[in-house]
Structures are given as structure tokens and as C-alpha cells.
Amino acid sequence: MQYYDFEGNEVSKPANEEYVHWFNDAGLSDGKLVAGDYAGDNKKSASELLDPCTGKRVTKVNEQQLLAWVDDKRLIAWDITPGSNEFRNRLVLVTIGSDKVVPLSGFRKGNDGAAGRWTLIFAER
User: Fold this and answer.
1) Fewer Cβ within 10 Å of end Cβ, the chain: N or C?
2) Surface-to-core class of residue 56, CB atoms within 10 Å of its CB (0-12 exposed, 13-18 middle, 19+ buried)
3) What are the tens digits of pLDDT across the range 69-121?
4) SS3 110
């Protein structure tokens, strides 16, 4: 990721975006957390949330891939059923500090080819 000032000169990343990476879709929350990398294992999927200035793990949530912040405590994520593959996933709403998961979609089949898959799009209201 590259940053520029209003004159078009390249500048350093803002301090609270040092650990924001293009491959982590959710990115920076309200400035207090950054979506980190996958932190699961063979038994359970999980993703980490980082301190935006230090890059240290603050907590984990039990979802596969963090996609978008709803507010400073909730995210939309892809989740998989333990033991299934990454292509059989669904959208969920996850709350930091809670094991409660609210399904937002059904599971995608994962074996139906590109024509049968749908792509999500987020927009601000």
C-alpha cells in the first residue's frame, strides 16, 4: 500500500495503519484494532485482531476470514464448518469477546464452479 499527500508526493503510512495489509479485507476498525492473519488450526478456524500501532495480537475471533467492520465490536466474516473445506463457507456476523455467531447467509456449495458462486459487495450507508 502506498500513501500520498495532496501534492502527489509519497509519504509514510499513518502510525495506526502500519499493520494494515491489502490482503486482510477488513483492515482498520475505528482505529483501535486491525484485522490480522489466519490464526486457526486443523480443528478450528480463527483470525487474529491486532493493535494497529504495535502489531501485537489483542485477541482472536473464531472465523476464517475477516471481511468488513460493522462497528468497533462486530465484523462480517467467512466461516466454515469444522472439518469442511474453505470453499464451503457462509457469511457470519461475529462479536469480539463473544462466541455468538449470527449467520448472514447459507453455505456456498464450493463444488458448483464459478458460474454458481456469488460474490459479496459491501457498501457504506
Assistant:
1) C
2) exposed
3) 999 899 999 887 766 666 678 899 999 999 888 999 887 776 666 555 667 78
4) coil
Alpha-carbon separation of residue 48 from 5, 51, 56 (angstroms): 31, 10, 10
SS3 category, 21: coil
pTM of the model: 0.79
- The CB-side HSE value for 59 (13 A sphere, CA atoms) comes to 11
Say if CB 85 and CB 107 are below 8 A apart: no
Number of Cβ within 10 Å of residue 3's Cβ equals: 11
pLDDT in tens, 35-49: 988 887 777 778 899
Q: What is the DSSP letter of 15?
A: G
What is the 3 state secondary structure string of 29-45?
CCCCCEEEEECCCCCCC
